[in-house]
Design a protein that fits this description.
Number of helices of chain B: 15
Distance between the termini of chain A: 116 Å
Helix content of chain A: over 70%
Strand order of the largest sheet of chain A: 1-2
Order of helices and strands of chain B: HHHHHEEEHHHHHHHHHH
Helix content of chain B: 55-70%
Shape of chain B: globular
Number of helices of chain A: 49
Oligomer: heterodimer
Shape of chain A: flat
Strand content of chain A: under 5%
Distance between the termini of chain B: 65 Å
Largest interface: A-B, 51 and 59 residues
Structural class of chain B: mainly alpha
Chain lengths: 1262, 299
Amino acid sequence: MEYVLLFFVAWFVLCLPPLVYALIVENRRKDNAESFKQEIASLTRRIYGLEGQLKRLAETKLPGGEAEKPAVATREAVAETIPEEKRLASPAAGILPKPALPPPPVKLPEPVFPAPPVARLEPKVVEVAGAPVPPSIQPPPPAPPPATVSPTAITGANAPKTQPAKPTIAARVQAPPPPSFRQPAPTPPTRYVEIAQPKKTKRISASLEEAIGTNWFPKLGITLVVLGVAWFLRSEWEHIPAIGRIALFYLVGGGLLGAGVSLERKENYKMLGWALIGGGWAITFVTTYAAHHIPTARVLNSLVVDLFLLLLVAGLMVWHTLKYNSQTVTGTAFLLGFIAVTLSHNTAYSLGAGLILVSGMTIIVLRRQWFELEVFGILASYLNHLYWLYWIINPMGENKVPFPEYWTSVALLSSFWLIFRISYLLHKVSDEKQELVSTIAALLNPLLFLGALKYQAIDTKWAFTTLLTIGALEFVFGQLPVARRRRLPFQILSSLGATLMVAAVPYKYSGNDRVLLWLAGGQAFLLAGIFAREKLFRWFGGIVFFLVAVYLLPARVVPLAEQILNRLPVYNASFCIIFAVLSVVFYSNAHVLARMRQDLFQEETDKQAISALSLFASVFAVCAVYSLVPTNGAAVVLAFLVTALSWTGQQFGIADLVYQAHWIAVVAIVDVTINGLSLSTPWHGIPERILTFGAVATLLYCSSRFVRLSQTQVKDVLYMVYRWAASGLVTVLIWKQAENWLSAVLWIGFALVLSTVTQALKANEFKWQAFVLAMLAFCRALLVNFDAGGAFHGVSYRLISITLIAGGTYLLVSRSPRMRLKPAYTCAATILLGYLAYKEAPDPWRAVAWMTLAATVAFAGRYWKDRGLLWQSHILSALASAAIFVVNFQPQYKRSILQLITVGIATTFLYGLTWVTDVAGVIEDERISQTYSWAASFLLSWLMWYQLQPISVALAWAVFGLLLFELGHDKPSAYLRAQGYVALVSSFVRIFFVNLNQSAVSSWWYTVVPLVPIYFWVYWRLHAKKAGEQAIKVRMEDVLACIGSATVAALARFEMPLDTVAFGYSLIVVALLTVMAVTRLQIFLFQALVMLGVTAFRLSMYDFHRLHNSFSSSVTFPVLAILVLAVGVPIAFQVREPKTENSESPGWIKFLVRSPEQPMFFASVVLMAVLLVIKLDVGWNTLTWGLEGLVVVLAAFFARERSFRLTGMGLLLLCILKLVCWDAWKINDPRAPYLSFIGLGAFILVVAYLFSRNRKALRENL
Amino acid sequence: MKRWLIVIGLAVMAGAGIFYAERRKPESHVGPEAVLTAVAETQREISRVPASLTRLSDEEEARIGDSMASNYSSARYGWQEATDTPIEKYINAVGHHLAARAHRKLDYKFHYIPDADFVNAFSLPGGHVFIGKGLLLQMDSEDELASVLGHEIEHIDHYDCVEKVQVEVRLRNLPLSGLLQLPIELFQAGYGKEQELEADRDGTHLAVMAGYSPQGALRMFQVFDRLHRQYVAKSEGPSEELSQVAVETIAGYFRTHPLPRERELQVQDMIASEKWPERKEKPLRISLITPTTEANKGN
């Protein structure tokens, strides 16, 4: 079981990945080779085809001796043989591209192109171009430009990839009869495209099919054979003796090998043959393995003999497979060899067989340049060895002890390493890919070698020696001439050696010794590189320096930083010395040595390395300062360092030093900010805080000058940063030293000083600093000064400080760094004053105070035409308005005089500000100033809502809206009118939520009814002047007319008893029709028609329903409603407007305008008919229907309306039908039948009479 | 000038209205009732034709109503219907006396909910009427009970109840088990304003036809009015008005009950127009409800 497991592990770990990789590489290579072969064949065929065609062309065209000219004619020569007009007539001739070759499979049979010769010429040219373009047409057209050539033809000509598969196309091209010059060809380009597209797909699918059939199927087949054999064995195992089983397996393996060798010689079965060969060798190898390792098949008792046989089989495999020059097959053979070693290594000596394999494989690798195989060999050999070690080391656990094969293992590993290293040195690569694989092998070798040594190591004391020795050897290998043949081995081996030697140091040395040792080594490498002019050595030195730096960062620098941050004592002289030495060495190397030998450090990477080295030097310099200088002076020393670096950088043109000064300056600033703020002791009577802040700020001001004069990038920005930082330190100093309420005042003072300095030094950044200081003072005033307690001679510090700050801020306006920032100053000051008002004024008067301030600011803005001030006025007004809503409308002020006065004053201010803020040229949009008016009107409306009874509010709004409308109408002012409209519409909406809810109280007559004339008055006013003004796009006059009528309808709906609502609606319909008849205003006609629909709906869905199933229903009001509608019919005749032609209206609207009597009439008739059905029994309702029909006919005669007449007649006919078909069978009342019949007959007679009498009139009417 | 005279006239007229309203200070109720009523009733009127066309048969309605009543009695409230208690018998006697005059001849059943906090009555499809103890405790006479029961009978008579389940049965083909999942609050919440007013009118008619005094209905609505004033919040300003409108718009769409005062006025108008004779009200058999009724009423 163990062996089986071992086999599968070895298979998966060792065999599968390289095998898969090798298969992929091999397949790719084969595909490329096949593709290349096809392309060559295609090109060859094309050349032959072209030669043949040119030859025929020359023979055909040139008479006599000209036919004897060379067969291969140039393209120009061919072109010259064609008459000019014919060449122009042939699109293909014009587009024939130089690389376009004739499709090789196209064989041009002679009968296809009969005489005349010229006519034969052009189709040939067409086919040469690859596109069956129709021949020229009589008369020939002018020469087509290339851009107008059929894209299909271009596709055909420029698509060489489609040409290898031309036989099918050629057949299709040749299939049609020869093209005639008198008849155009039947769209050949299209057909060509149609053919080409599926051909491409077919080609892809064919390629895939070929891959599956010739490559994967054989492999799958042999896999199945092997599995079948295995299955057979599993079934019949017990019945076959061991020797027989082994013989059987050898027979099968040999048979497969023979078949494979036989098939491999045939081109079509090459892949199958290779697969059979592989399978045969595999079975042979497995059989050899089974001869000892599988008990039931054991015929050999000696493991050594079996190992020998296994290696023999593997060797034979290698020998055999080399014949096929396939890395995959040979790799498989070696794989089996390594598996044999893996299965057999009971002792270390059995691993020696692996050494033999490796040696053999190395020879093959070097001869065949199969570097992938070497990678596989490295992996297999080392992993094989590790697997062997695993069974020895793993049982030991954590406590490794020496084992007998230790030194043997070391020797084996060393041998592997040496063999592969020598192999690497002897590699002869021919391309980049091989170099890459070779490099992978070169790196894998020491990696696995050292890994294996580490795994079996029992003591770390040998690590230093081992690493140093191997590193030295690798380094020496790198210097050998054989390595220097190619640049890459020299680089890799030297790098490896140097790395291993440096890595060896920590295993023996530690602490400062290690640092100094590395430093010395690095310096030695650097100097050697400079003197020997060997770049690699210089790089080694640089890498060691960086290693030192990288080592020191976590080991020394970070702990030092943690100590500083935790405010622990950091004084350490030894550290200081180390850091100082490092800093000096690094600075010297970076800026002295490198400047002395500038020719060696010209590359960009060298410069970057020098910059990095210099940066590390600055880090160590800062560390040295912190290791030596006490906390209260570190920032000052660092500031001195900043000044020194910036000066040096500026003097000698070393940008790196100036850049380092920047970050050190940041450290100094942070240090003084953190540590300096906590300083409270005096030094000779002067507070240390002032001294440190002052010194650092002064040095930063000085450094800014050197930074500005330096040749560094973004210096123009950074020197300002220095000044900003210095000023910031002064600001912080003021903040910490001064009293709370005073610091903001001092900041404003400092800002004034800075802005004054600006004038003297012409340094604009001080203006900016003054601006920031002003903003800081503003913020601090907001946060601190408003809560400041105490007073100075009775005047509170809040008042004094805020006034001073606001005053100073206003003074700074004239020294603003930008014009656009002036509003910031004024805003800040205004906010402070506004907030002061908020603090000082009582709650109900706060809004008034703000409104006063807003008015003042607005007046100032109007005077100076300052847009910012006007906007501040806007904001203050908005705040005041909000304050009114929040405060003045609180319940305790409800309906109070105070509320009335304060809101009234605020409203007055708002209306006034409408004029004040309307400054032409300053405020672009006049709607902003109009907003004041809107706000004022809104506040007044809101005040009415609070001050009046809920039921009165709508009326008050309506009156207010009326006044606003009239004012707006007079000025004229659209926004006032708009406010009036809003108020009027709001009043209308409100009655639905308050006034019409009061069904129990009759208040509608004095709270709702007065609204109606107001609405209609405004409507009338608008209608009278609408031609002159169209400020409001919405037809407000129509809206107002509608809400006027809707108010009346709503009164009917909500205030009248439910049974009478429809009656009320019908009265409104008639009233509206009457108004229409009097005023000729069409809006009322539309309203009447809408109300007619509402009435009909109400009657049918409410009243008629109630009549059906309610105890308390009454037929009176429905009948009255219908009668009123009927009365409206004559009025509707009066309002007809047959000449109305509104082209924008839909047809049904035009119809209603022309014939409003029709809906009136039909609604009345239908409603009455339904009512009769509901209310009367069967029979009686028929009779009444007859009566209704009679009345309708009479009315029709009177009105001379044909539709009425037809309706009456139809109703009568319906009565007859109903009576015969329904009533006769359903009537219960014994009287009803005959009465119905008689009555209906009478009615119909009367109608008949009427018709007879008025026949002539009817004819005229018709 | 003429224009300004008209404007001044309009303003004076409106000002007079405002002045009169301010002096009189009529009771005002702010809310969306008017709009909601209009919308709800319009919706109902639109659905009248479909409702008539998909009407359930009386048998179907009775079957559904029986199941819903049984389910409500046992599952929702955890009490078993006790038809043999004196109070149940009493309510059934009054109810059947009224139902005999209804348009629809159904097997009416009247149920008593012994919950003093349930100040309500409602009806289910098929003739089931429920009345709570809380509501009975508010009554003084049998005529008041008759007006309430008549009101609920008329909801059944007008198909108000069955129309609530009609859509589920006819259009969605909901089985009986699905109908039982309908919340009973759907029926307890009542109906639209016009439906309620109509049920008031016809219920009062029914009570009068059964020999009861219409004063019972009047007194019942006076009790409702008192409770309404007691429990319904009154808005004090624009913000409260707006919030009240918002809340009632959301919650009150399906429950646009008329104000009790409006219902009372309607009955008064009916008494005047129908010229119903004055009758002495019959005493309510209070002892059947609870021996401490008087004490509860005092609270």
